[in-house]
Design a protein that fits this description.
alpha/beta, Alkaline Phosphatase, subunit A, six-stranded mixed sheet, four-stranded antiparallel sheet, 12 helices
């Protein structure tokens, strides 16, 4: 089971599900948006292979989102933040209409990216990452499960509610060989319930009750022949400092779309440079903001499988810092991921000792693949 925005430190400090899940590991998260992290967890590949380079990435060719440039002429929608077309509801309607017309995933969302700037980008939400070939050319979890011939189920839900629990336990009781459950939310709201120690403790309690009921169902149905693994994407930390990166960008003697492009997220700022000379100007401006964040090194990019589609330069925040305003959230989030320490590490907790010690997000898929292969061998031996 995958859950969003809960980290290793809080899980360990509270002894979260210690008795039920005694095999416990701190996981260094994939760098990137929740979509990027989840894609790596579901394929075992980095962005270079699975192609989910954040919610959006610079597309110098087809620019499939260029139609949104027209929206700014509707009563100045792209120019006035308080215009009707910049409300959350209106943007969701526009996003759904576009996704249906373009054949994109229903999770496609423009969030609060300026319409005239969005026209330079492509979306990573062209497909559902949990669908068949959803991370093509990389294989995802569903691809592996369909090839295995196992009786499997994949559920994607938005909360720890009674209906989701009932559906999950019914599937387990029906004799499913392998069940994957993702409990998450959008990048904008997934951290709102994780803003401080008290609320995180409450969320852990709710998650623990939910997962505990699944464990009880497994025990009663399968006795000793079962395993349950719970893992998160990354941890979040309370936002203590808001950094207005947009104000710094406005002062640069550079033209968006010609000299450089950028995409502002709450925890990172990604740059592309059509004019290569713009790089030194950007690096100087944000290099002077070392108390707010830092640029990823070439080694960081290599270890995380990040290429120029993700960004020519990537500025990530220090722990406790948030980029606000951003193009993902209109209002500051209460908590975001940090990058200066290991405080945002994810966790993997299991009822049984895994086949190897996981350390990175990509290892999650490899462990699931190992479990699938083991179940296949066991089913074959029992025939």
């Amino acid at each position: 089971m995958l859950i969003s925005s809960l980290g290793w430190d809080f899980a360990e400090e509270s002894s979260f599900m210690q008795s039920e899940l005694p095999f416990r590991y701190s996981i260094k998260p994939q760098i990137g948006s929740p979509l990027t992290v989840h894609s790596t967890a579901l394929s075992g590949e980095t962005p270079c292979a699975h192609g989910r380079n954040g919610e959006f990435y610079y597309d110098s060719g087809s620019c499939p989102l260029k139609i949104f440039k027209c929206v700014k002429y509707l009563f100045g929608a792209g120019l006035h933040p308080k215009c009707l077309f910049n409300t959350h509801a209106a943007r969701r309607v526009l996003s759904r209409a576009f996704s249906k017309r373009a054949g994109y995933s229903e999770l496609f969302n423009t969030y609060y990216a300026p319409f005239e700037k969005l026209s330079f980008f492509s979306s990573s939400r062209k497909t559902d990452i949990l669908s068949a070939n959803g991370l093509s050319p990389a294989r995802n979890l569903r691809d592996v499960l369909e090839a295995s011939g196992l009786n499997f189920h994949i559920l994607q839900k938005s909360g720890f509610n009674a209906e989701t629990l009932r559906e999950a336990t019914d599937i387990i009781s029906s004799g499913s060989d392998f069940t994957f459950l993702y409990i998450g939310g959008s990048p904008e709201n997934s951290t709102r319930a994780s803003s401080c120690a008290k609320s995180i403790s409450k969320r852990l309690e709710i998650c623990g009750d939910f997962a505990g009921n699944i464990v009880k169902t497994l025990k009663s149905k399968y006795h000793g022949d079962w395993s349950f693994t719970l893992f998160s994407d990354f941890g979040v930390l309370p936002s203590k400092v808001l950094f207005d990166a947009a104000a710094v960008l406005k002062k640069l003697p550079l033209k968006f779309g010609f000299d450089f492009l950028y995409f502002i997220e709450p925890d990172m700022l990604r740059f592309w440079y059509p004019n290569h000379s713009a790089a030194s100007i950007v690096r100087k401006a944000f290099g002077d903001c070392a108390d707010m964040g830092f640029f990823l090194s070439d080694l960081d990019k290599e270890e995380n499988g990040i290429n120029s589609l993700f960004g020519d330069d990537v500025f990530v925040v220090n722990d406790g810092v948030q980029l606000s305003p951003s193009w993902i959230s209109k209002k500051p989030l209460e908590a975001v991921r940090g990058y200066s320490t290991s405080a945002s590490n994810a966790f993997l907790l299991s009822s049984k000792k895994p086949s190897f010690v996981p350390t990175r997000t990509s290892d999650i898929f490899k462990l699931m693949k190992s479990d699938i292969d083991s179940i296949c061998r066991s089913n074959s031996d029992s025939i």
